[in-house]
Amino acid sequence: MSDSNTLTMRRLTISRMRITEAKKAELDAMLIQIINAQAKVDEKQTILNSLSTKVQVFSQYLKDAETNRTTALSNLEFVLKIKSEVENLESQADFTQITVRNASEFSYELISKLSDMVRQLVFAAEVVNKFSNAIVRKKALNPLISNELVELSATMGKDANTAVALSLTALKSAYTANLNSLDAQSTIMLSKSLLDKFVGKLNTSIEMISIDNGLVTVLKDIYAGTKENYQQKLDANQSVLKQFSNARTIYEAAASRLASLQAGYAAASAAALAN
């Protein structure tokens, strides 16, 4: 081989070596980009996993707050219903009391008035007994209802039944005399007194709660607090969901860039090997 041919071969070898080193440097640079991109993907994945757990926790917080709000509203509505019915019952007792007093003044109407009073008391006893049973059931679910309130409602039921029995006796005696009308009037006054105490327990202080508000006011305050707490949990939950959505978008962008770099590196490696 001539010196000229040898020189040409050497030049070609040097040229190929330079091309190979340039491609290797390019591949190394791409590999570094892939490593950096993978680190970012791992970082974003960690953040996304953390926010995913946070979403679950705050979602449970929101469910608990909603349950508390619903329970508080149910308790408030229950007590307001009792208060309304008892006030209605008290009004009926007032009417009955007036009726008995008129019967004492007008003896010839005694039997008719006493019959009406008995019907009123039977209805009142049924309502009171229903309320007493409802309060006992609610007490098992809601410790805010005082024991004194439960005991008072039970006493009202017993006294209402007693009032009915006494009124029947008065009605029987009215055929021979009207003196028992006074006893019936006393019985109505006793029932009215018990109703007043019951309403008073709804509107005045509750010992077990140790605050100077009535039961209705207390339950309204509790419901207002649960509503506020629910709104706070709702806002926090929405904020966390937004954070998670943003983090997922960032993660997907990082993952997409990593996949693109990996595909480019694979193509460049294949081209280098082909040469």
Explain the overall architecture:
This protein is mostly helical. 89% of the residues lie in helices and 0% in strands. The longest helix is centred in the N-terminal third of the chain and has 103 residues, at 3-105.
List the helices and strands and how they pair.
Elements: H1 3-105, H2 110-141, H3 147-173, H4 180-203, H5 215-274
Helix pairs in contact: 1-2, 1-4, 1-5, 2-3, 3-4
Query: What oligomerization state is this entry in?
Result: single chain
Give the rounded overall mean pLDDT: 75
The counted number of beta strands is: 0
Gyration radius (Cα, Å) is: 43 Å
State the share of residues found in helices, binned by percent: over 70%
Distance between the termini: 27 Å
Contiguous low-pLDDT stretches (5 residues minimum) are: 205-212
- N-to-C series of helices and strands: HHHHH
Short description:
This protein has about 280 residues and is mostly helical.
List its traits.
275 residues; single chain; mainly alpha
